[in-house]
């Protein structure tokens, strides 16, 4: 996309050779502990590069830009340094959540298995002073289960509600921001209301885990390690903020590449770090081996929802899904036939060119799909711009191939089989159909008025 009309806004697409920051950004970035020497004082503040940004309609506000700059390694180490001081009133419990699509990057980069990478990464983070390291797979379980239920409900209401179908996946913040900032309510009304795994993990850490540990949510500093920069923007959404405790669900997002920068700064290789078992949200349990969801490059919303809908709506057990590539490998469809009729038609649309074509068909009334798994990154989440990039900002295709190989080799666990999730629905969320489920696991999406229009987008 080409950046235009940036006279009143801070452009989110910073050039790679841009070594300066505005004074307003500097002012907003400084806070408690800014006078102390940071352990990583030579690292640049977080930037969303021209080649990285997939999120918006050319620009974000100055305030948003400043808050994104705060989500960097320096802020992470500011909290670590505060914890080393004697003033316990400023101490924070530091929890880091690891996205499943980040682990294959560390595994491939350091020639480790995914399980080894997870444990060594846990060991490295705890050596820095992190108290807890979690796996976000359980949050994806919740997100997928809620998306499955919502799709079935929308399908059953399709003849009564104009915007019931199609349903678009809501896990990708780049897609969500584009839909809200550029597209109309014609599109946003079709987005699934289930929160993304990142933000559900925020609810689990600041809600469930905080209660288990008898902690106020604002006493936890929650960091997410993710494959893309757009996750930083997602963490800033106002609806993911608990006003009562003055606490966001996710305080800071660091990309996989930023974690590697920390390792390089400290002259540490993940291969030399002692393995430490990843923590569980439940009592003193530790996580077992890493598992994944169906889907080769993401959390597999399409496959899980498709199989669930086939069973719930048509009584059909689908064991294997056959993808049909259309215009390109990043636009594929899956169909279900019964009695010679196509009853379900799903699609996967990755990358903004495919998303744009999809939206044009929707606006023209020529949209045939019931559900679309929409991801901003071509190739899916493994190809997030916060990892597996060469020095000139292009995808490292050899590394990506290794990442996909180790990721698809992981065993698949169906969300329905996670006993911890089922127990939490009853004990913490007061049942699967409760008001608390709606408040904790769902949000709403709507068009945001912008001074720049979608005509400013250059593809």
UniProtKB/TrEMBL annotation:
Residues 1-19 have a biased composition (Basic and acidic residues). It comes from the Eukaryota. This is Nuclear prelamin A recognition factor. Residues 1-35 are annotated as: Disordered. Transmembrane segments: none annotated. Residues 393-449 form the Iron hydrogenase small subunit domain. The gene is Narf. Interacts with LMNA and binds to the farnesylated C-terminal domain. GO terms for cellular component: nucleus. It comes from Sylvia borin (Garden warbler). The keyword Phosphoprotein applies. Keywords: Nucleus, Phosphoprotein. It is found in: Nucleus. The keyword Phosphoprotein applies. Belongs to the NARF family. It holds the Pfam family Fe_hyd_SSU. Residues 20-32 have a biased composition (Polar residues).
């Amino acid at each position: 996309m080409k950046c235009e009309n940036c006279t009143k806004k801070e452009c989110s697409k910073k050039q790679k050779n841009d070594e300066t920051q505005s004074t307003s950004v500097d002012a907003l970035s400084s806070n408690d502990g800014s006078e102390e020497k940071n352990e990583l004082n030579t690292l640049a503040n977080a930037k969303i590069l021209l080649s990285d940004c997939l999120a918006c309609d050319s620009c974000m506000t100055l305030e948003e830009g400043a808050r994104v700059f705060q989500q960097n390694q320096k802020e992470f180490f500011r909290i670590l340094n505060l914890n080393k001081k004697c003033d316990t009133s400023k101490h924070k419990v530091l929890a880091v959540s690891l996205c499943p699509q980040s682990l294959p990057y560390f595994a491939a980069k350091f020639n480790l298995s995914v399980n080894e990478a997870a444990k060594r990464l846990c060991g490295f983070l705890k050596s820095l002073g992190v108290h807890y390291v979690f796996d976000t797979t359980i949050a994806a379980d919740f997100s997928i289960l809620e998306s499955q239920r919502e799709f079935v409900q929308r399908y059953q209401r399709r003849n009564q509600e104009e915007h019931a179908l199609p349903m678009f996946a809501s896990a990708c913040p780049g897609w969500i921001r584009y839909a809200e900032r550029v597209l109309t309510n014609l599109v946003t009304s079709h987005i699934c209301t289930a929160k993304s795994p990142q933000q559900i993990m925020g609810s689990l850490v600041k809600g469930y885990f905080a209660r288990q540990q008898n902690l106020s949510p604002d006493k936890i500093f929650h960091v997410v390690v993710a494959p893309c920069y757009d996750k930083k923007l997602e963490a800033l959404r106002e609806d993911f903020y608990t006003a009562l405790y003055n606490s966001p669900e996710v305080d800071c997002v660091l990309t996989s590449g930023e974690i590697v920068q920390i390792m390089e700064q400290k002259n540490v290789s993940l291969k030399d770090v002692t393995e430490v078992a990843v923590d569980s949200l439940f009592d003193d349990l530790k996580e077992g081996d890493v598992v994944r969801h169906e889907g080769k490059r993401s959390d597999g919303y399409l496959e899980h929802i498709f199989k669930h809908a086939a069973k719930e709506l048509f009584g059909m057990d689908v064991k294997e899904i056959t993808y049909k590539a259309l215009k390109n490998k990043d636009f594929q469809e899956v169909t279900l036939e019964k009695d010679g009729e196509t009853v379900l038609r799903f699609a996967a649309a990755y990358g903004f060119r495919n998303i744009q074509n999809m939206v044009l068909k929707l606006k023209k009334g020529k949209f045939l799909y019931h559900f679309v798994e929409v991801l901003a990154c071509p190739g899916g989440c493994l190809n997030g711009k916060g990892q597996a990039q060469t020095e000139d900002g292009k995808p490292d295709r050899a590394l990506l191939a290794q990442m996909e190989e180790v990721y698809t080799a992981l065993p698949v666990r169906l969300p329905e089989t996670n006993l911890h999730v089922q127990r939490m629905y009853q004990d913490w969320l007061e049942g699967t159909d409760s008001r608390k489920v709606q408040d904790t696991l769902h949000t709403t999406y709507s068009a945001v008025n912008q001074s720049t229009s979608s005509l400013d987008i250059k593809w």
